[in-house]
Amino acid sequence: MATKKRILLIEDEEDIAALIKLHAEIIGYKLHVEVDGINGYRAIEREKPDLVLLDIMLPGMNGFDICRKMKNAIDLKNIPVIILSAKCEELDQVLGLELGADDYITKPFSLKILFSRIKAVLRRGGFSEKAPKTLSFGDFVLEVDRYLLRQGEKMIPVTLSEFGILKRLLINRGKVLSRNQLLDDVNNDDSFIVDRNIDVHIASLRKKLGIRLNWIETVRGVGYRFLEKDGCSID
Fold it and tell me: CA–CA separation, 144 vs 81, rounded Å?
């Protein structure tokens, strides 16, 4: 029997927390709730859950600061984060994603959509045993089993979502992939498209890869494609 995925929800609105917890347990997740930022971050350090659901406006420590601290901690940075927030301005969403969140969902939200996104983010965090160990392009190397991107000896910090998107693009180098394909497995019935989020992740990756080559090409109206030339090896 598969081990239940452990989710930590940091949310100070009791009604919302209770509803999410009930739905999670019905589906089969193990969900723990913390109601303030300080105890929430302590719980992340202590429990190291499979995924964190994170409100922004929290007492003690806000969600942005929690996300920032997680992504700067070597033992926590690969834990996926989904932000749940009433802050719906584009700048807030961009900030959350750039801090390393894997998704940003604005309140009010549908529980069905929320748990579809949870499922997708958890799935992207797991790699097949048949996956290549390294993917290289130019002077960059993506170390699949170590979740690392390096340029020569220099480590390039990437979020879990950026890592997953880059890995998918490299494995399918030269092929055009839709936003939906980059966010989830190709033929899942519960797949969904979050245009704004994928575009932010792509923009961040381009910045980190530098402007010497436009590695990731935009195919208007379709999606993205990784540059076919310059040689790419898979080991």
Answer: 20
